[in-house]
Design a protein that fits this description.
The protein is α+β, with helices and mostly antiparallel strands and about 425 residues long. It has 14 helices and 17 strands. It starts with 5 loop residues before the first helix and ends in a 21-residue tail after the last helix. Bound molecules: 4-amino-1,4-dioxobutan-2-aminium adenosine-5'-monophosphate and magnesium ion.
Length: about 425
């Protein structure tokens, strides 16, 4: 038998025709003369009606929520049915009869997160995961158009990228290794062969903060390329974001709408983005009554205050060297300022960090020592400056922060199928 995707029926392709569908029972309502089953497959949900005189009646009576089944019937156009079409069922076969399903209407967010392996079947999670897949596709599309090569860096690493405080250590046979916080240093290796490289890979942070924007395992979109400066970097990042947003507005409108997200926000993203220096950001905060001494890092509240003012994506650049990682390139005449830029968006704050990398071996060694790191750990990284060093830039954008912003999700946890946080690692 040929089964039709539910969405194709909702698209009106089978009006008054016989169809066969297969999927799971999403909802069930029983009347004396009619049983209403809302059936879902990966593509959509449709209402099926079973009449008391139909041969499908006895099966429909015993079927439970989340049972798997096949239905054969006739498609009817019906304004009252959600989606505008329904299937009048003539035959129903139960494939797997479900026990009483633990998820019902009034369950708390907390409960739904504990039972994630079943909650992922919800329409809401189905839609989020589809948009997530599309955003990955649009991201790859952009990198590819720009001549970038996708590479595969390691997740087991022997030295920190972003500082020790958020580093996960692990036993690796009889050695101590770490889970990577960023693939940047490995991308830097690969630019000497492939020039423009990117990866989309997991990054890990031993992040104790329980906020709407922190995970301990997240997917990191990272790019790195040579012969480029800060202007090239920010231009690339803003064009990437604009491309992803434009494509999402074109292709994911239905999903956005069903999720209650505003497509006009992504549709209206335009380049160039506003750009302010860290020093200007400190002044803007001051004008709002938030006192930050030059040299202090911004927290979530500071970023949010700045972002609310812009109401759209923007950059803050030229941060104090002291709050940035060892690899950041500094201005030769102002070594206290690093060539580093963050992209910020409303409600979430930072969604990316990028910058120019220190390409002078001696300055880099000095920075490694100043930060109390071991030169030996970074010997291979220093080799990149010994053999044909080149000015280069790169950035990392958190996929989940991007999605949380795009889809107006309440919490980053809902942008990834299996969230990992300080308290969550099951299932
Ligand atoms: O700002 P971060 O730490 O920068 C880097 O890792 C650079 N090495 C990237 C690079 O230049 N290749 O992290 C980059 C981005 C952040 O802006 C944020 O979007 C995301 O990664 N991120 C997190 N997302 C979710 N949960 C966390 N705990 C995150 N930490 C960082
Ligand atoms: Mg950052």
């Amino acid at each position: 038998m040929r089964f039709m995707p539910i969405q194709s029926i909702l698209d009106g392709k089978y009006e008054d025709k016989s169809v066969a569908i297969r999927g799971w029972v999403y909802r069930k309502r029983e009347g004396k003369q009619t049983i209403f089953l809302v059936v879902r497959d990966s593509t959509g949900v449709i209402q099926c009606t079973v009449k008391a005189d139909s041969p499908a009646w006895s099966e429909a009576e015993k079927i439970t929520i989340e049972s798997s089944l096949t239905i054969e019937g006739t498609v009817k156009k019906d304004q009252r049915a959600p989606g505008g079409y329904e299937v009048s069922a003539e035959k129903l076969s139960v494939i797997g009869l479900a026990d009483v399903f633990p998820i019902s209407k009034d369950k708390s967010e907390e409960f739904l997160r504990d039972i994630r392996h079943l909650w992922l079947r919800s329409r809401r999670m189905n839609l989020v995961m589809k948009v997530r897949a599309d955003v990955l596709e649009f991201t790859r599309e952009f990198f590819k158009d720009q001549g970038f090569v996708e590479v595969s860096p390691p997740m087991f690493i022997s030295a920190a990228v972003e500082g020790g405080s958020t580093l996960f250590g692990l036993k690796y046979f009889d050695q101590n290794l770490y889970l990577t916080q960023s693939s940047q240093l490995y991308l830097e290796i690969l630019i000497y062969s492939l020039e423009k490289v990117y990866c989309i890979a997991p990054s890990f942070r031993a992040e104790k903060s329980r906020t709407i924007r922190h995970l301990t395992e997240y997917w990191h979109i990272e790019g790195e390329w040579p012969f480029a400066d800060m202007n090239d970097l920010m231009q690339f990042e803003e064009e990437l974001l604009a491309h992803v947003c434009k494509r999402a507005a074109e292709k994911c409108g239905k999903e956005f709408e069903e999720l209650g997200a505003d497509t006009s926000k992504v549709a209206s993203v335009e380049t160039p983005f506003p750009k302010i220096t860290y020093t200007e950001a400190v002044e803007r905060l001051k004008a709002k009554g938030i006192e930050r001494k030059w040299g202090e890092d911004f927290g979530y509240d500071d970023e949010k205050a700045l972002a609310d003012e812009f109401g759209k994506p923007f950059f803050v650049y030229d941060y104090p060297t002291a709050i940035k990682a060892f690899y950041c390139k500094t201005y030769r005449n102002h070594p206290e300022v690093a060539m580093s830029a963050d992209m910020l968006v409303p409600r979430i704050g930072e969604i990316s960090t990028g910058g120019a990398r220190e390409d002078d071996k001696d300055v880099l060694i000095k920075r490694i020592r100043e930060m109390g790191l071991s030169e030996k750990d970074y010997d291979w990284y220093l080799d990149l400056r010994r053999y044909g060093t080149v000015p280069h830039v790169g950035f990392g954008m958190g996929l989940e922060r991007l999605l949380t912003w795009m889809l107006d999700l309440e919490n980053i946890i809902d942008s990834i199928p299996f969230p990992r946080t300080i308290r969550r690692f099951y299932p």
